[in-house]
């Protein structure tokens, strides 16, 4: 067998492993872990809307809430490992492509790379929290956003960089919301394995949850653009401050209630993806 044939055989075996049960299990564990985080963030936001908590409605607040439960340390480690699985799954998509007819395109691989980097960061923060049990949950997302914005504004062309990042986040939020409303996730689900009632439930959680998630991203991006235009890092907001902003609208806390409920639904949708997504 010549060198070219050996290389081709090696690539085939690597691709088969990447598509095998290990990667599939990692993907499903990661989607379930994402569901837990969104459900907890949504639940904390609901409590904020009704004035029942001072906890941060972000990843740090969710981790702190988990740590206070029975077997909290075990749950934190399981959550972190699940998110590592999510990062590994996205890495396999970078290397071998994702499901779908254009899964090996450069655009899909780049998107997978961005998602991989994001989940590496999230998994690291969760595992660091699990190891240290730092009650800050890795720090407030609001303070992290302000600090990152302040550092970015100090570099040459920093104002333009922050504005571009904010616009990108707004665009990402719009893209997430529109895809959810158009039910683009159908392309990635094993719809044939679902009954009519299950499919309706998945559509309710997918559309409402995706729209709420997209709205939160878009609003956070708007605040980043404002911070760049006014050259004031304090105007940048993390997830917690962004959610609290919804309660300051003319309709009062009810908009926050709707958005928070949407985030809970997105958590439920993530569990559905963990069960029925094609990997």
UniProtKB/TrEMBL annotation:
Fetch the InterPro entries from UniProt.
DUF1206
Membrane-spanning intervals of the chain? 31-50, 70-89, 110-131, 160-182, 202-229, 254-274
What UniProt keywords apply to this chain's record, in alphabetical order? Membrane, Transmembrane, Transmembrane helix
Domain DUF1206 residue range list? 29-95, 113-183, 208-277
**Has the keyword 4Fe-4S been applied to this entry?**
no
What name does UniProt use for this protein? DUF1206 domain-containing protein
């Amino acid at each position: 067998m010549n060198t070219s044939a050996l290389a081709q055989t090696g690539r085939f075996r690597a691709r088969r492993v990447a598509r095998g049960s290990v990667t599939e299990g990692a993907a499903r564990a990661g989607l379930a872990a994402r569901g837990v985080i969104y459900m907890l963030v949504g639940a904390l936001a609901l409590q904020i809307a009704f004035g029942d908590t001072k906890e941060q409605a972000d990843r740090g607040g969710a981790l702190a809430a988990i740590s206070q439960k029975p077997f909290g340390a075990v749950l934190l480690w399981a959550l972190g490992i699940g998110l590592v699985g999510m990062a590994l799954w996205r890495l396999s998509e970078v290397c071998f492509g994702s499901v779908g007819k254009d899964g090996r395109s450069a655009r899909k691989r780049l998107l997978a790379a961005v998602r991989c980097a994001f989940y590496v960061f999230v998994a690291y923060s969760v595992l660091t929290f699990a190891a240290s049990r730092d009650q800050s949950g890795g720090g407030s997302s609001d303070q992290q956003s302000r600090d990152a914005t302040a550092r970015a504004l100090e570099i040459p062309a920093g104002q333009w960089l922050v504005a571009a990042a904010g616009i990108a986040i707004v665009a990402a939020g719009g893209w997430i919301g529109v895809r959810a409303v158009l039910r683009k996730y159908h392309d990635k689900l094993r719809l044939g394995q679902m009954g009519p009632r299950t499919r309706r439930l998945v559509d309710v959680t997918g559309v409402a949850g995706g729209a709420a998630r997209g709205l939160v991203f878009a609003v956070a991006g708007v605040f980043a653009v404002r911070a760049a235009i006014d050259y004031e890092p304090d105007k940048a907001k993390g997830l917690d401050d962004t959610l609290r902003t919804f309660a300051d609208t003319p309709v009062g806390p009810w908009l926050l209630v709707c958005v928070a409920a949407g985030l809970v639904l997105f958590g439920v949708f993530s569990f559905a993806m963990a069960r029925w997504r094609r990997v």
